Amino acid sequence: MEQQAYIIIDIGTGNVRVAVCNSDGKILGVARDNVEYITDNLYTDSLYFNPYKLWQQIIALSNKALSLAKDVNPTLQISAITASSQHEGIVLVDKNGKSLIGLPNHDHRGREWESEIQGKDRIYELTGRKPSSLFSAMKLIGIKNRRSDIYKEFDCVMSISDWAQYQLSGKKGYEHSQASETCLYDVQGMVWSEELCKIFDIDPSVLPPLHQSGTILGNISSAISKQLQITESTLVIVGGADTQLAIKSTQPEVGDMVIVSGTTTPLVKVTKKYILDAKKRTWTNRHTDDNKFILEANTGVTGLNYQRLKEIFYPNEGYEVIEKELAETIPSQCIASLGSLIAEENQLLTRGGFIFNTPVSHELNRAYFVRSALWDIACCIKENYDGLSDVDAYDKSYIWACGGGFQSSTLSQFIANLLGKNVRIREGFRQASVIGGVIICNEALHVKMNQQLEMREIVPQEQEYIENRYEKWKEVRNGFKRIFH
């Protein structure tokens, strides 16, 4: 029987993946590849990517995922396609539609001009975040000040997911959750801000029309339909930021908190209110859901740390091997602080390491290093949870969780124990942004899932000395701060 399906393009910080899914969120085929970044020596701490190469990867991955899906069902028909991508990343396009340069979220080419920003309190009022080189406006300032050749040519800026949808349909736009990350967008007012454009000296004409996630952008172009061998009636659906789509996969209620364990680990609360923190510890973003916001604190690249340690200590083993060895460890052998971001602090901790007793114990093995890294992630989440709760109190007995980091049952249990909350994880949590993409395609096409995504729940366990171990972790982290700041 003919089966309707969607293509979901997910462009993360580390890799790009394309999945073919049915409307119930079942993944029929998936392919992935690493995103290649190039160091820009004109700046300190600056990276870029070649949009043409990335698009060729996306086409190749789409064809591979489609081939895998059609091996399962040869009569598969694609009815919609959408994209999600990393926050803050942008692509600059000229007036002829040529993609000039791609700037990822971890490109900081605007950092040396941060001190020149005026009206920072007003910027926070309008954008819900302190301005920094992380956000798109400062990336544009970096291009303006040192890559005038590109700045003179570019005619439009789009988020990476909006750029992907432009490549698919030929229609320019900027989705609201992605626009939240530019520092050029009035988050409460849901409009581009002329006032912010004046502060950053950015011409408002380079900002394309704003689009709502989960709406139809248009039909796929004939050229792309031929490349993918799918019908020209395939609809391009407005996607959004990967964190917001991952949040949608958990299907939370207003007022719920969600942990998204990906390259970074955002901790967010879904709200209908535009909330500002007097201490400026949090970000307030537009959600992909209309008339909703997310209040966010982010632990930084904690998930990437875990992935890198797996590559070092368990390069050829699966997560089940790690979990088996973790179960055989005891808590006190090793403590880690591997760089993290805590809402209460003004400066990112960029140096860290492992602390263990000397002389080195014969019992110390690879599992202890990974265990201490997971404990570090859980403690950072605890710190940010406390800060977020201080801004907007949270009294529910559970917290949602999604993302690849929750392949570790040890991490899930650590978080439940530290927060004293049940940790709820839905089916498909590893591909949370992809499942979120399925949900918005369903919304656009008015399709209902035939079955709800199943949920499991991790319950807090009473553990001896947990508070003592938490305090020891704080001592270690503070020690690194004193040494390296």
* Spatial strand arrangement across the major sheet: 18-19-17-16-22-23-24
Q: Would you state the CATH class of the largest domain?
A: Alpha Beta
The structure class reads: alpha+beta
Q: Can you count the beta strands?
A: 24
Strand content: 15-25%
Task: Give the overall shape.
Answer: globular
Shape-level CATH architecture of the largest domain: 2-Layer Sandwich
The CATH homologous superfamily of the largest domain is called ATPase, nucleotide binding domain
Low-confidence stretches: none
Instruction: Measure the end-to-end span.
Output: 63 Å
- Number of helical stretches of at least 4 residues: 15
Can you put this structure into words, describing what you see?
- This protein folds into two domains: 4-244, 2-Layer Sandwich (Nucleotidyltransferase, domain 5); 251-485, 2-Layer Sandwich (Nucleotidyltransferase, domain 5).
- It is 36% helix and 23% strand.
- The N and C termini lie far apart (63 Å).
- A hairpin with a 4-residue loop joins strand 7 and strand 8 (99-103).
- It contains 15 helices and 24 strands.
- The strands form seven sheets. It has a seven-stranded mixed β-sheet with strand order 18-19-17-16-22-23-24, sandwiched between helices.
- The protein has 485 residues and is an alpha+beta fold.
- The protein is globular and about 65 Å long.
